[in-house]
Amino acid sequence: MADPKGFMKVARKNAGNRPIHERTSDYSEVEQTLNSEDRALQASRCMDCGIPLCQWGCPVDNLIPEWNEKLYKGDWKAAIDLLHSTNNFPEFTGRICPAPCEHSCVLNIGEEPVTIRENEVAIVEKAFAEGYIKPSPPKQRTGKTVAVIGSGPAGMAAADLLNKAGHTVTLFEKDEKPGGLLRYGIPDFKLNKYTIDRRIRLMEEEGVVVKCNMQIGHDISVQELVSSFDAVCLTIGAMQPRDLPVPGRDLDGVHFAMEFLGQQNRIVSGTEIPYDERIIAKDRHVLVIGGGDTGSDCVGTSIRQKAKSVTQIEILPKPPEKRTSDNPWPYYGKILKTSTSHEEGCERRWNISTVKFNGLQQRVISADIEQVEWGLVNGSYAMKTVPGTQETIQADLVLLSMGFVHPVLEGLVTDLGLDLSERKNIRVGKNHQTNIENVFAAGDAITGASLVVNAIASGRRVAKSVHSYLAEK
């Protein structure tokens, strides 16, 4: 145990964020870091509970009390070894995970949980800085080949473990650089893309072959793919966005969130985007439809592009400020989340439905919205409009961030003839195997859109299944 009375002697201390006036002028990471001494004190607050509910709440089963103890004692090498034993990429989850572990922390009963997420990223960054993380290629190869399609967190995790098991792994990516939504969906002010490049470089030095700009079905046929590799693992994500079929949807200025976010991430990386293709929030009244993390990312990016105003609307009710009686600890707290982007300046509204978009010369200029209310109908929640509440709000850039419905089916999925679930995700068995013997799937492609930490966990599970399959062969 780090310090049996640490939680009684040391108060929770967050690293904090850069000042708003400073951070909204660039795309550098918002979150600051604590010095090593303060970080060790924060680790001392971990009580090493008899039942580590923090670990129960963590999708990758992080050994949280164990590595907090090593952090408190200054043994950074042991701490990163413990972290890596369950999580391939703590530098990602330590930055962008919503930390279900902290919601489950016993100290969260008093709303002062251990700073688990910040401790995690501190350990991995210290380990990189001190040279504890080095290439460690497998000592021998099995002679088996695996293709992993999609280089997001699930694909990276699967490729990493399969390579470490001695298989020859090729990681295919349709975009120009690897990382999936880590690179082209999450803004740089939350996740610096250097962290992806650093990890990919390490994986390549360990033997993973990374091939970008590879569209399966175009640059290589699905038949060639399945026949050329002993196993194929699909980690293509759930990239089909939920649309909003209302009048005016086809007006210029109405875009899916990922079009907007991906373009800005490319610009930050130095990619030239023709001006007539740019989606620019500068001097515009921006309407973000959808209240989740992607919507929040659109808010922060619009503010950095110097939007005239930003409004975010959500069709669901406003979450409570505190846990309700039907959402007790140690479950994830379904409470109002205010992101750093929201703090930078944004009007937020709930129980709002979009009726139509209005345009002038084929360009969106406003949106008609109305209030809704939710209630139980035959045991299920249902929505109904509130009469007399319709209004028109100014909006000359609309960003649709209402989530994703399922993987993109055209091309790879349909060409392979894969079975689908009722929600049109790829159907797999308990071992992540599809209806094609040597084709496996993992991540958002089988579950629908979820958290990065869930994708990593799924990628780790599918790697073990593929390894068992190859061992039997």
Adjacency order of strands in the biggest sheet: 3-2-1-4-16
Total strands = 16
CATH homologous superfamily designation of the largest domain: FAD/NAD(P)-binding domain
Describe the main β-sheet briefly: 5 strands, parallel
Model regions low in confidence, pLDDT < 50 over at least 5 residues? none
For the terminal residues, how far apart are their CA atoms?
45 Å
- What is the CATH topology descriptor of the largest domain? FAD/NAD(P)-binding domain
Mean pLDDT: 96
Helix content: 25-40%
Under the CATH scheme, the architecture of the largest domain is 3-Layer(bba) Sandwich
Gyration radius, in Å: 23 Å
Give an overview of the whole structure.
Helix 3 packs across helix 5 and helix 3 packs across helix 9. The longest helix is centred in the last third of the chain and has 21 residues. The chain folds into 3 domains: 125 residues, Fumarate Reductase Iron-sulfur Protein, Chain B, domain 2; 163 residues, FAD/NAD(P)-binding domain, CATH 3.50.50; 160 residues, FAD/NAD(P)-binding domain. With 473 residues, it is α/β, with parallel strands linked by helices. 34% of the residues lie in helices and 17% in strands.
Blueprint of the fold:
Layout: H1 6-9, H2 20-23, H3 36-43, H4 53-57, H5 64-72, H6 76-84, H7 90-96, H8 100-104, H9 116-130, E1 145-149, H10 153-164, E2 168-172, H11 181-184, H12 194-205, E3 209-211, H13 222-228, E4 231-234, E5 240-241, E6 254-256, H14 257-268, E7 285-289, H15 293-304, E8 309-313, H16 340-343, E9 347-349, E10 352-360, E11 363-377, E12 380-385, E13 391-394, E14 397-400, E15 404-406, H17 412-416, E16 439-441, H18 444-447, H19 452-472
Parallel strand pairs: 1-2, 1-4, 2-3, 4-16, 6-14, 7-8, 7-14, 8-9
Antiparallel strand pairs: 5-15, 10-11, 11-12, 11-13
Helix pairs in contact: 3-5, 3-9, 5-6, 6-9, 7-9, 10-19, 14-15
